[in-house]
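I hope you will forgive my troubling you with a question about protein structure. The matter concerns a single protein, recorded as an amino acid sequence and a row of backbone structure tokens. Please examine both parts with care and let me know of anything in them that strikes you as inconsistent. Thank you for your consideration; the sequence and its tokens are set out here:
***
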Amino acid sequence: MIISLFTMACWFIPEDKSGEKPLAKVANQFLYPSDVAGIGGGLSTEDSLYQLALHINKWVKDELMLSVAEDNVETTDRIERMVRDYKATLIMNKYEEALINQRLDTEVTGQQLADYYGENKEQYQSGISWVRCHFVKVKRETPEIRQLKKWFKSDDGVDFERVKLFCAQNKTVHILNEDLWIEYDKLLKELPPNMISSRHRQRQAVLDRMDDTYQYLLLIFEYRDKEQATPLPQVKEEIRRILMHQRRNQILQDIRKEVYEKAKTEGVFEIY
């Protein structure tokens, strides 16, 4: 099919578009290789050619239908206005996008994220409880558990590094990133039922428990109930997108205002 299309293209009107040979022709309309650039990109040669053939066939059918429609539908003033408005919209959008990209500051600081979050917390209630904690779950027969418990309860940074080394060397379930928020229910799944009390959630004590199989150590730094807002780290990318959208809208408003004020000063337009 592709070979036939290329062969047929060579029979028609000579090269155009800087020497390109057309791929297809309907009436006086031509489809050139530059019109289909990128189609089938990333695919195998066979699949790429198949996608190209589909596109060419669709183009031919669309042009044929347009040709028939133009012969049977009167081009009214309304259609002309719609065409003009669509063209104007495309041109304006392209120009505005270029200006926005020139002015847009893409950096969003942590403070800006925190400010927006603080002003809009009510929008981020997810119905999920969250927790920041240090947690270690290890088989009770693991050597040096007595030392692990001592290190875990210590405020010494050196001892904390020992806890991390212990977890790396032994088969443990652990959370040792104080800044990491996790879903509270996921933490509960790693513990026997009803092991965490309210005083542990309020960071009043280290949970130190052992059952027939495991030793559990838990220190909660912050607990956030499901009625409270989702923690900022969980929604910061969403907030970043919102802030960028707001910036783009503000730049667009500024651009349109500048154009209007300049034209007004120069007397370019009149309103009757």
In short: Residues 126-224 form one domain. The first helix runs from residue 2 to 9.
